[in-house]
Specification:
Blueprint lengths: L32 E3 L9 E7 L9 E7 L9 E2 L4 E8 L1 E5 L4 E5 L3 E4 L6 E3 L6 E8 L4 H7 L8 H10 L3 E2 L2
Length: about 170
Amino acid sequence: MSLFVPDYPAPRYQRETGELSATFRRADSAPDFHAAPAGGEGTGTDYRYLATQQSTDGDYGLYRVDMGPEPGGPGMHFHKAMSESFFILSGEMRVHDGDKWITATSGDFLYVPPGGLHAFRNESGEPASMLMIFAPGAPRERYFEDISEIGDLTDAERAEWFVRHDSFFVN
């Protein structure tokens, strides 16, 4: 009997014994960043940086996004350098798969490869939480932290800012 052995990537860890290098984050940890809603009212959005480009050596980025009840989310866009995935933890999110809007609830998952059109919105009037995964990892923390300030930029500066953050919006 021959057992099939799948092809694994080349080893990146070369030592013969393991090491103490894991990290742990409790669920009740404070968010790393809080974005107030545009109107200044309500709860806004909390971002928890679970695994960043820096902490995973560029493998991926994993972020928990807890959105308040205010409507919000980016318009239709794509990324050239990374894939993006969404896993709904709670509440109801509207996700666009490039073809249609879908109402996603707890346990639903959307994978978007590089170049894939997508968008998401919380339109429910209730809080919603999701995990966002970017692969390979990218410095998305700057994107999350600076997005609320792009209203002060000129159109040309705003367009350049989005390109710098691998976000290409379509009408």
